[in-house]
Amino acid sequence: MWTLHAIYWRTAIIVVASLVIDIGLHFLWAPTPAYAYPLSYFVISGWFLPIVIALLLITYIALALIFQLIQAKLSGTKFAKGLMFGIAFGGLMLISSPAMSLLFGSSMAAELRIGLVDGSVICLLGVLLGWFTATDGRPRQRLVFAPMAISVVVVGLVYFIIHFLVYLTLPSLFPAYLTQPTETMLWILMVGLWIGLMNWLLQDAFSTGSFFRQSIGFTGIAFGIFSLLNTLFAPIFVAAPSGILLLNTAAGILFVGVGVWMERVISHKLSYIGNSGVRR
To answer: Domain residues of the chain, as ranges?
Structure first.
């Protein structure tokens, strides 16, 4: 059992080390690409690098706080907890990376490299936090495909369908829908499916209370905070319409909440039907 003082310092060291590794990998392998969009004030004024580093630091601190908030409820060894957390958020970072290319015309390959770097460092952050600051939980149950499939399919499809209907009626929320509709909707489907996987990976942390409360817990604490912080990077690179970006992100968070709530309801119904069949 770690003391609070030890957890505090170990977390601080892990966050700073992850930040340094991330910055180094970006300089070596994933530099900022060119955008077919006006540069932001921060780039023009020379404040780009310190602002990016500051937001990266805030993001890693937020992820560390989220992990400390939920890790006691996760099942599995401390290493497994950190690995699940890292895969969940690191994978989301990678899957989300094409957004800048779709919106602002940068190279898709360059954005995927950036997403791979950031996602890998976030995965490392999770593993280190788990190994050095978490505690072993109850043994994790063996992998059962059905609950994972239900979460991935339900959350993913709800996220995709609502986005499709909204963009069909309000395309200004995501202009890439007008210019690259197929690529945009395929990307949204992939993001939705990954969020469904995240929901399953972290389900132990949000499994008490009403289904509404569980969906608010996952959407607000796990997905929402990270999604909002990730959105703030775009206006640092380009002169993006921040209001539209934040509105789009807020809408996405709401859609995730609806999807997670529906997944809880459907999983409960299927579990009840299965138990009723066993009793007969």
So the answer is: 4-279
**In contact, 79 and 127? CB cutoff 8 Å:** yes
- At residue 13's C-alpha, the angle toward residues 8 and 17, to 5°, is 150
Q: What is the pTM of this model?
A: 0.93
Report the C-alpha gap between 124 and 14 in whole angstroms: 9
Residues of the chain with pLDDT under 50: 277-280
CB neighbourhood size of 36 (10 A): 9
Buried b (16+ CB within 10 A) or exposed e, 70-82: bbeebbbbbebbb
Encoded tokens for 16: 């700073």
Distance CA 213, CA 121 (A): 31
Per-residue CA distances from 78 to 60, 65, 72, 218, 242 (Å):
19, 16, 9, 20, 39
Beta bridge partners of 238: 39
Cβ atoms of residues 126 and 82 within 8 Å: yes
Phi, psi of 92 (to 5 degrees): -65, -40
Q: pLDDT tens-digit profile of 62-117? A: 999 999 999 999 999 999 999 999 999 999 999 999 999 999 999 999 999 999 99
Contact yes or no for 139/74 (Cβ under 8 A): no
